[in-house]
Amino acid sequence: MALRYHRAGAHVNPATIGNPGHLEISSQFQSLNSNEFPYYRSGIYWLPSFQDDRNFYMPSISVTKDRWAFSYQLSYFDLGEEVRTDPSGRRIGTFSSHEQAHTFTAAYRWSDHLSFGAGINIIRSKLVPGGLVIGGSETQVGSSVALDLGVYGQYPYWFNDNIKLTPSAGWSLTDFGSKIKYSERANGDPLPMKMRGGLGLKLELTESVDDIEFLKGKTPFSVAFYQSFEKLMARTDLSGNSMGPFEALFSSWDTYPRDTGPHMVSHPLGEQIDQRGGLEVIVFDMLSFRHGYYNVAEANGGGKRTYFGFGLHYKMVSLDYLDQDIDSESYLQPYDAFWQLSLAFSVDQVQGLFGGANNIN
């Protein structure tokens, strides 16, 4: 939320995307803790579930030129082959089930201190095959279009020529769009619209080690802390009817009554806010250590997740690892991890490959 020039911002805070003058490609791939480590499946994140063939694909690309940044991100949740049955429950075949979103994002750096961003999500959800008649209504593949909006601000303060302190802040609204319907007669299911706010504080020691060639120009040390708050705006009443996006935007800030089955539970606003925090230490722009947490709001199931990660970066290549421990009764598997591989080229490097620049940096 409050971290600028980061690849992960495309669908969190679109105002933060883009590394000036660079073309960046990133992709997650399967964890080392699984039975295989297939590099050729770059772009796949193994998601623990009842079926091992469920995977999450999320490759992305971003390019930045002058004050503009643009990105594309594919989110593809492969649910594998699902069973089809007739009204009596007899198996009559299978169908391929998946959910996907194409996210196109643009950000404008209005000044060195302030950026604005917006994105559009084209969503397709195939949870049931189209054309089936259930309860007199024909099923269909769900689809929707949603909007993302974001703002980011930072203001660096120099204590001296070597020490810089940069506070930052961000706000975003994601998945503002129409409901998804899986049949013509359905009321529709709301998108997971979220409003987020975040703060950051980064301390850097900037004096580089110029007498060692491969460390020249690199920041020797930085430490940063980030804190964010987010609220799920989607809401369904006790009769099963969900709010539309405009209604939820203004009318979902009061106490939320929820039917848990055995009894009714009411959640005040404080129990509807998720909290995330993280600490990152970076040494010479090449080695990163990260620790974070995610407190899930009671209205969203409760629980806590803790994270540890590290990153290695050298020239164009970055390799990042994340390990998470989950303390939640609503999550079946308490552990999972993944790797992410990223490539970052300068625009001049890309132009040089095609003869568009005289020098390749």
Question: Secondary-structure blueprint of this entry?
Answer:
Layout (H helix, E strand, L loop, with lengths): L21 E8 L14 E3 L8 E3 L2 E6 L2 E18 L5 E19 L4 E13 L6 E2 L2 E2 L3 E13 L2 E2 L4 E15 L16 E12 L15 E12 L12 H7 L4 E4 L4 E4 L5 E11 L3 E9 L8 E11 L2 E11 L7 E12 H7 L8
Q: How is this structure best described in words?
A:
The structure is a single chain. The chain has one domain (about 5-355): monomeric porin ompg (Porin). The chain has about 350 residues and is mainly beta. It starts with about 20 loop residues before the first strand and ends in an 8-residue tail after the last helix. It has helices at about 245-250, 345-355; strands spanning about 20-30, 45, 55, 60-65, 70-85, 90-110, 115-125, 135, 135-140, 140-155, 155-160, 165-175, 195-205, 220-230, 255-260, 265, 275-285, 285-295, 305-315, 315-325, 335-345. The radius of gyration is 23 Å and the shape is globular. It has a 14-stranded antiparallel β-barrel. It contains 2 helices and 21 strands. Helices cover about 5% and strands about 55% of the residues.
Compact description:
The protein is mainly beta and 361 residues long.
Protein traits:
361 residues, mainly beta, Porin, 14-stranded antiparallel barrel, two-stranded antiparallel sheet, 2 helices, 21 strands, 4% helix, globular, disordered C terminus
